[in-house]
Amino acid sequence: MLYLKQVVGLVTLARLSTALPATIEYNVPSEAGSVLNLNIALRNGTYTVKANDTIHTIAAKYDVGACDIARVNVLADPNYIYTNETLLIPQIATFPDDTSCFSTNNTEATATCIYGGPHVYTILPGDTIQKIANERYNITVESIMNNSPQTGYIAALDPGPYDVLQEGETVKIPICDNTACTFTQFTFDYGTLQDYATTYNITVGQIMALNLGYNHTDATGVPLVVLADCEITS
């Protein structure tokens, strides 16, 4: 039997309050209030992603949570899995109804800038201005579209909010005046980028921007840079 030690995550036991089907076995964290340092038992063998699979359909197949699978496989964004990718599968569910490993596409965002930076984001496959603003950074679409000066690519293209952008190009992100953060590093061993963003009180977009558009790997133990202790300086 394989085990993987969780090193990050702030999911509370309150999420287990939802009634679970009697047929599903699940782990109960040994320390109230946190799933830090859980040892996750894995099934023997793996699952190979097929066309049209999603993290949710795979989780349903094995009666585990989507975040259970996302975290043991160190998926930066659980919405993106790839055909023929090999996934580890937890033996039983830990938090079958948890969705905290997913970034929220907050279309009602009101913030117009981020604390501390960085000010340039590298476009990933399928990105739109709306996705970058509302999901990656939790800021308004207008704050990016009206940000001046903008990158030459965006200025020339003048895209609509939902136009798919070119992978590898860049977008400038507005930074709040008089704000700063410190830099630190973490090893991406368990969880999703949203778990780390929640832990450090920053956005997924900031982690991706700091790490040159990082969004996926088949390896664990990836060293990534992260911001911490962001604050208004004056």
UniProtKB/TrEMBL annotation:
Look up keyword Signal and say if it applies. Answer: yes
Signal peptide interval = 1-19
Q: Which InterPro entries match?
A: LysM (IPR018392), LysM_dom_sf (IPR036779)
Gene source species: Penicillium frequentans
Lineage of producing organism: Eukaryota, Fungi, Dikarya, Ascomycota, Pezizomycotina
Residue ranges annotated for the LysM domain, each copy included: 45-89, 119-173
Q: What name does this protein carry?
A: LysM domain-containing protein
Output the superkingdom of the source species.
Eukaryota
Q: Which SUPFAM superfamilies match?
A: LysM domain
The record, for SMART domains, names: LysM
Mind listing the UniProt keywords for this protein, alphabetically?
Signal
